[in-house]
Structures are given as structure tokens and as C-alpha cells.
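User: Hey, quick favor. My workstation is busy. Could you predict this chain's structure for me?
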Amino acid sequence: MEKSASPTLSKKQNMWMAIKFVLFSISAGVIQFGSFTILNEFVHLDKFTSLDELLGNDYGLSYFIALVLSVLWNFTLNRKFTFKSVANVSVAMLKVFGYYLVFTPLSVWWGVALTTHGWNYYLVLGLTMLANLCTEFLFCRFVVYRNNLFTNEAAQKQLRENSGGDLTS
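Assistant: No problem, here it is.
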């Protein structure tokens, strides 16, 4: 069990953390939406693989590739700037990987199921991204970085300067 090294955060500090997570996730969403659009509209992965037959349509593979790109971006930014953590990168990434071992198959499954039934690809993508935003924040905040919030050098300096004061910067 990891020893808690994180300060107790106020409501305002937790809210600011959530806002930063949302803002960084929006940037990851742009990467995910953009790469999904390029793969879906221009690359047509179904021409190169037969995975569309396995998955039911070509939504799944384009979505999966776009998701991986956005996760790498989002993990990197949120670890450093939102959660300000020095937690072991490998351990933190393994925990996030565990989250995606559950989320990804489910989201590919419901994405393919909904698009097969006529739902618009981009509506399904948007709703899936919203579900991912909410559940991933909770998972990162309360599982991945639970005992490692505000432990990086910049956060420690900020804590010393503020003497436990406002951590919203």
C-alpha cells in the first residue's frame, strides 16, 4: 500500500483540478476526433484489414487508433499539470491501461452496435468521449493518483510558497 503523500485539497482545489482535466481532455478530444475523422473519411482502414468483418463495421478500428493517440496525450499532460504527480510513470500508466482494458472493449462494442443500427458515427463518438471524460477523471483522481497528488517539484514549490494556501495555479 502506498503511503499518502498528497495534501488535503479544498473544494475549490478539487474543482480547479476537474476544470484542468476537462481542458486537457478537450485537447485530447480534438486529437481523437481529428484522427478518427482522417481515418474514417480519408484512409478507409477497411480496405487494408478485414477487422471490419470481425467488428461488424469500420467504426471500431478507426475509433481504437484515435483513442490510443488521445490517451497518450491526455495521460502525459494530466499527470504533469492536473494531478502534478511524481508517481511512477510505469505504475500509473499500467493503472490507466487497466481502466482502458475495461473501457475500450465496451466502447468499441457499443459504438459498433449503435452505428450498425444507424446511429451517426460522430454522435456515437461524441457520446463515448463524454462517457470517457467522466469515468477517466474519477478513475485517475481516486485510483491512479489517489496518494500522489501535488507531489511533483512545481507543486511542492507552490505548496511551500503558499504555505497550504491556494493551489489553483
